[in-house]
Amino acid sequence: MTVEIGVEEIEDIALGATVLGTGGGGDPHVGKLVAKQAIEEFGPVELLPPDELDADDFVIPTAQMGAPTVSVEKLPSGREAVTSMERIERELGKTADATMPIECGGINSTFPFAVAARRGLPVVDADGMGRAFPELQHETFNIYGVSGTPAAVSDEQGSTCLIETEDNDQLEWLARGVTVRMGGVAYVSDYPMTGTQVKETAIPGTMSLAKNLGRALRLAEDDAMSAIREVTRESIYGEARSLFEGKIVDVQRRTERGFVFGHVDIDGLDGDEGSTMRIEFQNENLGAAVDGSYVATVPDLITVLDRETGGPIPTESLRYGARVRVLGIRTPEIMRTPAALDVWGPASFGLEATYEPLADHP
C-alpha cells in the first residue's frame, strides 16, 4: 500500500531517521528543509513498498556523501542529486522509475524525497544500510551482488563526475576522493538497479519505520524511551534497550579523508554512576564500551538521546556537559549474515571486538 509523503511526514521521517542514523548520515535539519521546499513547490511524494515494484522497474538511489560537519556549512540547493541521477540516465539510456535512500539516517533519509518531488517519482520504502554507515560499499546492495556503477557525483557548482569501476570498494575510494576535491561534501547516485534487485537486496520498510519513530517521539511528551521501544518492538529490528545514562565529559573530533573521526566520553549517572562509556565514531557511532568493555558494536545501532527531551543527538552536535541516554537497537537479520559482517562488522572499522547481537530489552 502506497503512502503519500507531505511536509508533516517529512518532519517525522527526519526525526525518526536521526534515531536510526546512529549519529550520522548528515545534518537531518538540512535534509528536512531541502525536502520540504521541494514538496511545497512540486507536491507530495509517493512512498512505494518494494514489493509493489515491477521486476524491470529502474531504480536509482540518491544521497549526500562526505563529512557531516562540512555539510552544515555547504548547504545544498536540492538540485545536486538530480544532476547525478540524470547523468546515470544518460549513460544507460534509461529513465528512472523511482529513487530510494542508500541509508535511513540523517540527511539521506529525506534527500531522496527532494529528488523525487523534483522529478515526479516515487521513493521506495527501503534502503541499503538499515542505519547510516560512512562508506559506499557498506550496502546490502553491495553485499548481495549489485554493482554500484555507473555512479555519478555532483557538487553545488554543477560539476559532475561519472565513475565506473570493477568493484564497489573502488567506487568508494574514487567517489571519496572526488568528494574531498568538491569541498568535503557531494551528492551521489549509485547502485542503479532493477525492481527485482531491490526486492532481493534492500532492507524493506525503513522509511515507514523512520516515520513511525518520528511520530511516536513527537507525541511522546516525557517518555521517549518507551515510545522508541514500542515502535521498534513491532519492526524487523530488535526492541530498543537503554545502554547507559550520564554526562558528556569529553568530545574529540577530527575531519580526515572526507570523514569525521572521534570519540565521546560519558560519565555515568544514577544506576551507571562510577562507570564511564566511550563511544567511537566515524561519521556514525561504531562501538560503545563501558569501562573498557564493549556493550554494543556495528552493525547494531548506537544512538545518543538528550536525557531530558529524548531527542536524538548527531555526532556533530555532541557537546561537553550534555546529559544523555545511550540506546541500542539490534539490526535486522539481513544485516547480520556472515557476508554482511565481513563488510561492516567491528573488525572492518578497526574495533577490537567480536560482534555480539544486542538482545531485546528485558
TrEMBL record:
Top-level taxon in the UniProt lineage: Archaea
Gene3D superfamilies per UniProt: CV3147-like, CV3147-like domain
Domain (S-Me-THD N-terminal) ranges: 9-164
S-Me-THD-like C-terminal domain segment(s): 167-358
SUPFAM superfamilies the record matches: CV3147-like
A matching Pfam family: S-Me-THD_N
InterPro entries from the UniProt entry: S-Me-THD-like_C (IPR048350), S-Me-THD_C_sf (IPR024071), S-Me-THD_N (IPR010318), S-Me-THD_N_sf (IPR027479)
Protein name per UniProt: Hydantoinase
Species annotation: Haloferax sulfurifontis ATCC BAA-897
